Amino acid sequence: MMSKELSIKNSLIIRESRVFRNGELIFEADQGLSTTKFLKKVYNDQKLKYSKFFKMDELSKLGYLGTEILTNGSIEDKETALVFANSASSLETDVAFAQTMEEFPSPSLFVYTLPNIMLGEISIRHQLRSENIFFISEEFDPLLFIDYTTALFQQEKVENVLCGWVNLHNNDYDVFLWKIANSGGMEFNEEELKKLYLPTHE
Amino acid sequence: MKGVAVTGMGIISAIGRNLNENHLSLKNAKNGITNPEILSTQHSHLPVGEIKLSNAELATILNLPENHSYTRSALLAVHSVKELLENSGYDQFPEGTGFISGTSIGGIDKTEQHFYDYSENPEYRKYIQAQHPGFTTEKIAEYFGLNGFVTTISTACSSSANAIMMGAQMIQSGKLKRVIVGGSDCLTKFTLNGFNSLKILSEEKSLPFDDDRAGLNLGEAAGYLLLEAEEYTSGRSVLGRVSGYGNANDAFHQTASSENGEGAFKAISKALNKAGLSGSDINFINAHGTGTRNNDLSESVALQRIFGKNIPAFSSTKGFTGHTLGAAGAVEAIFSLLSIQYGEIYPNLNFKTSMKETGLDPVTSIQNKEINTILSNSFGFGGNCTSLIFKKDE
């Protein structure tokens, strides 16, 4: 069985009103901004033009923005698999939908009450008809990503994988995206992933 | 390509509390669709596939202590994994057995029952953490002492199909030797109201693939399979094999399927490719067939694109169980393996008129014939399409 070394090509972090690409701070807004306002600022800063953005729930917006920034708006390999996870599932939107149930249940909220809708949004934006999976874990679990992604490569199903931890809970967002390929970057292992994910110190 | 061995199964659904009861209902074309009786809802006119056991009754069957914090999904899951264990030939699951569970609802049932009680009634607060979908999975793992690889998949209505795919992949790549895969979802007000708001619930029993279909009936179920690496299967009964699997995104809409069924087409193609089969090798298709206008047309178009004029016999079993969301992939995997085991094709209930657009007719009465290879489809919101291929063990 093939056991080639896999590489982390690049990475992106969005948390606490900041955006980092490959460890470098590329955008910062006032601390304490609401998630909605912060996301709008990132959207504007990136000069994005994608009207579907405004219909998305916040979880999908986080996934969409992270992907745009990490990939410079272009995913060339349309077979790039998406391997994503989070802890809070779609809880924020679940709550918002549950509140509408008291009077008139909102279909436009209900469609976002699943965390993998974000993968649908990314797939629609980049016209990816590739393999997708979404996991729920208590906390960021590097080994889960490594196991799943390695199996995809071993089976020769893919040449590129976009991995993502996109969590949103009580206005607290935590986005970590990275791309895995056969070569050209740092080694794809637990230690490197943890280093990239852990809160950035200046 | 031999495929990954299935060496145990367990199920609970609206048509039965175990494999035998589910098999008898399928064989006798007996559906489990009624108005809600256990779920308390004002939408009492909407038919559902409900398991007629209360949480208290389930807890008694499972010998749980009075102060347990199992959600309904966890109760259903434990019930079916118990059956799986019994027919697997093991007294208890061997050390290192993995557990991959799919769910789309997690513990929402407990949150909606007790949310307003939390501040006043401390005894309900044990359910606050049950909202986390991973909690339900952990409870099931805890019941059986599973402390190896445990994870939760949430990809809507293809969740448990993806759990089966992932388990097979992990065994084939040598990461796991033995893994329980499947899923569990219960009825909730949340989903009943949500699907109703999308106007895709039928007020009558659903009519999958019929020209007059008017939506789906929600259901609840749990279904699990034990997958084992080849070196552990000698001398044990192999119920069938997972020989192909494929997943693709439809990349069309948050919840609706594309007109040309591109995601389904790609998922089926990938599964055939993985199994090293061509379309003509498929004896039967357990279709996703929810009974919505959109899914059944999109899926039919995908089938035409794959199989041309020679579409194999197909049916949807949603008319028996309702659409059991995250559990549907595992439930229908088990029905597929029953078909292989007994040489039976189970009918697509309530079908009368072919769809104008495609003219396709599903199987409408039970047929007895040798079945070697079955394709089972599960498509979810978010465009997540999964196809699995099961083969007879040879």
Automatic annotation (TrEMBL), chain A:
Annotated organism of origin: Christiangramia lutea
Protein's recorded name: 3-oxoacyl-ACP synthase
Taxonomy, superkingdom: Bacteria
UniProtKB/TrEMBL annotation, chain B:
One example GO MF annotation: 3-oxoacyl-[acyl-carrier-protein] synthase activity
Keyword hit for Glycoprotein: no
SMART domains per record: PKS_KS
Keyword Transferase: yes
Domain Ketosynthase family 3 (KS3) residue range list: 1-392
CDD domains noted in UniProt: KAS_I_II
GO cellular component, one term: cytosol
GO biological process: fatty acid biosynthetic process
Domain of life, per lineage: Bacteria
Membership in a protein family: Belongs to the thiolase-like superfamily. Beta-ketoacyl-ACP synthases family.
UniProt-listed PANTHER family: 3-OXOACYL-[ACYL-CARRIER-PROTEIN] SYNTHASE, MITOCHONDRIAL, POLYKETIDE SYNTHASE-RELATED
Protein known as: Beta-ketoacyl-[acyl-carrier-protein] synthase family protein
Organism per entry: Christiangramia lutea
